[in-house]
Amino acid sequence: MLAEGEIMASTSLCAANTSASQNLSENKTTQCSFSIESILGLEQKKDGIPAVKPHRPWMDACTNLVLGDDSNSHLQIPVVSYENSLFHANSDPMQEEKVLKCEKYFSVTERLSFKRELSWYRGRRPRTAFNRNQIEVLENVFKMNSYPGIDIREELAHKLDLDEDRIQIWFQNRRAKLKRSHRESQFLMPEVSMHKDGLKLFK
Amino acid sequence: MLAEGEIMASTSLCAANTSASQNLSENKTTQCSFSIESILGLEQKKDGIPAVKPHRPWMDACTNLVLGDDSNSHLQIPVVSYENSLFHANSDPMQEEKVLKCEKYFSVTERLSFKRELSWYRGRRPRTAFNRNQIEVLENVFKMNSYPGIDIREELAHKLDLDEDRIQIWFQNRRAKLKRSHRESQFLMPEVSMHKDGLKLFK
DNA sequence: TTTTAATTTAATGAG
DNA sequence: CTCATTAAATTAAT
């Protein structure tokens, strides 16, 4: 099930968005309490309170989490799995230090929710920071094979002490990056790509 | 955490390498000169140059005009279009002093390219300075919707005389800022946010 | 020094 | 899988 706000985030659609869009594109009168002038900041602000609830998915979720509201269990963060997992096998010292600092001032539960907040609201996986060696190995493998099969990925995962999933994602992102660079160099230097087949397109 | 060079210490490296090699080349015999060491990045690297170029649309003209096709163009400094611009209207004294010193030894042209290199040693977009009105409008829109869709962004871009890209980046940075501030206030006053509804959440 | 515009990339979800 | 998009973590200009 999708988290509340998730749809909003991915489609950029919400009440505020729609109304704002209408206001911005058409100067129609609205039943909303904000006009295009207010949107554009051309009107004197009389109240600081927006007519619509701001769209802040991560805050919404944090509120739910902190309050432990079970009616929104669809928003729950798979905290546990991250807690004990290997995700932070290569966590950086900075974050470790932060956590250690917390220990002195907060309860375990509080620390948990702080850590939870450090990652994203749905328990978005903490961003993996590959070290130099990992990157180098991955790049070298990529040079030879940008579509490594499951066996190679597993092998890499084991050798580099990473989840196979991280490897997979890395290769996906790496392929996307390569593709983008190709697109861009074509755009930047069309004459090269046009001449590469020996065609005389410009004379 | 995987230490640098840790993989070299692995005892099963050779056997593993062999299978990796087989896996990597899959079905075909390797006509390439890659060894397993090179695959795993254990060989001396001779180039530190990234395989792909960054996206620098505003440099397109320069790249094409000045450099033409150059596989290392990401390292190059664009020469033409920013020469006469306002970007360096207020250069700092330190830099000025350096330049004066240089005067004794370098030609005007060399000095120019030195200056250019200082500020353009990487092809980074010149920092946009939003004016007060632009900020105000952006902030007002942000209050209602921190994820404006493409239509609103385009509209804003037109109304504020900015690239849509600037708008997009602004909102990204603005969201990050909001989130950061939220995180910080929770860190500073966890009891407030946790007890704000008077609930006993932890017992 | 602080703030924030710009960049790179890991993670995510839809197609 | 691709592709577009997002947030995290930076870098660098002011």
Structure explained in plain terms:
Two copies of one chain form a homodimer. Chain A is an all-alpha fold. Chain A is built from eleven helices and no strands. Chains A and B meet through helix 1, helix 2, helix 4, helix 7 and helix 8 of A and helix 2, helix 4, helix 7, helix 8 and helix 9 of B.
What does this entry show, briefly?
Chains A, B: Belongs to the ANF homeobox family. The structure is a homodimer of 203-residue chains. By secondary structure, chain A is mainly alpha-helical.
Overview features:
homodimer, 203 residues, mainly alpha, 57% helix, 0% strand, globular, disordered C terminus, DNA-binding, DNA-binding transcription repressor activity, RNA polymerase II-specific (chains A, B)
Oligomer: homodimer
Low-confidence stretches of chain A: 1-52, 60-120, 192-203
Q: Show the largest interface.
A: A-B, 73 and 62 residues
Largest sheet of chain A: none
CA-CA gap between termini of chain A:
59 Å
Structural class of chain A: mainly alpha
Secondary structure tally, helices of chain A:
11
What is the approximate shape of chain A? globular
Cα gyration radius of chain A (Å): 24 Å
Percent of residues in β-strands of chain A:
under 5%
Give the proportion of residues in helices of chain A: 55-70%
The helix/strand series of chain A, from N terminus to C terminus, equals HHHHHHHHHHH
What is the number of strand segments of chain A?
Answer: 0
What do the pLDDT scores of chain A average to? 56
